[in-house]
Amino acid sequence: MSVFTTVHEHQLNQFLTQFDCGRLVSFAGIAAGIENTNYFVTTDRYALVLTLFEHHQPDELHYFLDLMAYLAEHDIPTAHPMCSKSGSYLGELNGKPAALVRRLTGGSLEHPNTEECRTMGTALGQMHRTSPGFGGYREPDRALPWLQETGAILAAHLAKDIEGETVALLEDELDFQQNHPRGHLPQGAIHADLFRDNALFEQGRLTGIIDLYYACNDALAYDLAVTINDWCRDEQDGIDETRARAMLAGYQGERPLNDDERAAWPGLLRAAAMRFWLSRLKDQCFPREGEMTYQKDPEVFRRLLIAHRAQADATRAWLNG
Ligand SMILES: Nc1ncnc2c1ncn2[C@@H]1O[C@H](COP(=O)(O)OP(=O)(O)OP(=O)(O)O)[C@@H](O)[C@H]1O
Ligand SMILES: N[C@@H](CCO)C(=O)O
């Protein structure tokens, strides 16, 4: 688990006095997650999740929490943040910005089936019909400039211990991405990290999309590529075509991709694979300190990137149902 900042009972009790949420019954650190510190918090009135944000600025936190509230209020299943007595979603706990959100029921799916992928695609399409109406703006923080900066740091670090092949892949893909920008595609607020562990299901029904702490304004179709790359991956770290087609059909039932998005699709899948390859590799090469932390395997996304580079036409064919 990743608890970077330990919360003591007296600190939590003090924090809860800012909300009209009842008396603390229990709390426990949450095992999943690698970015923020999360606790389940139960009061005599609510089941909540407390998040201490480890590296975000107040401006972006307002964006995330306002977006969660906006989506929830537009019937997109997300965890609505709790408003404090003074009217803010954002407080401070143990020196860190902190928020309480409603705890959703259900659990994440390790092996989503075709129908669950279709359901997720439908929900993402609904979210993308709604999110361009959200008034907030946040610059994407894992787009090309970040890829370039992180890629350069990693290439220098890796050149010392591994074969040149990986560094060559990294540099070649950076070059490709630089020549395939996505600013001309339809834009809006995107989740940007809608992995299986960021959606909760109960009896085949999606109960909620969580962890909007990478949300930003970017190409909507890029968000779909991020989602497919995780939900539809097969055992060999390629993509399971049946699940990918189902997710795309679910999505396009709500929001059909336009010609520009269809043309850009293979490059978007590559951009999405590259982004998570590099973030995982960075965590592996430069681990952060924490009370309990775990890392995710970067190789999965390196292999997926290689697969996408080899099959642009096939990935475009998935768009046709
Ligand atoms: N609103 C919620 N309702 C129920 N469970 C939640 C909620 N928010 C978070 N969780 C639980 O906490 C876990 C960690 O949350 P989250 O994914 O936000 O962590 P993170 O460190 O910010 O994320 P990540 O590593 O995925 O970027 C989730 O996998 C889920 O089990
Ligand atoms: N979803 C990311 C974790 C960072 O949010 C990953 O699996 O690498």
Automatic annotation (TrEMBL):
Give yes or no: UniProt keyword Nucleotide-binding.
Answer: yes
Top-level lineage group: Bacteria
User: Hey, which pathway is this one from?
Assistant: Amino-acid biosynthesis; L-threonine biosynthesis; L-threonine from L-aspartate: step 4/5
The molecular function GO annotations come to:
ATP binding; homoserine kinase activity
Matching Gene3D superfamilies, A to Z? 3.90.1200.10, Phosphorylase Kinase, domain 1
What reaction does this catalyse?
Answer: L-homoserine + ATP = O-phospho-L-homoserine + ADP + H(+)
The EC number of this protein is 2.7.1.39
- Per UniProt, which keywords does this protein have? Amino-acid biosynthesis, ATP-binding, Kinase, Nucleotide-binding, Threonine biosynthesis, Transferase
Family label: Belongs to the pseudomonas-type ThrB family.
PANTHER family reported for this sequence = AMINOGLYCOSIDE PHOSPHOTRANSFERASE DOMAIN-CONTAINING PROTEIN, AMINOGLYCOSIDE PHOSPHOTRANSFERASE DOMAIN-CONTAINING PROTEIN-RELATED
Report what the protein is called.
Homoserine kinase
> What organism is recorded for this protein?
Halothiobacillus neapolitanus (strain ATCC 23641 / DSM 15147 / CIP 104769 / NCIMB 8539 / c2) (Thiobacillus neapolitanus)
Gene this protein is translated from: thrB
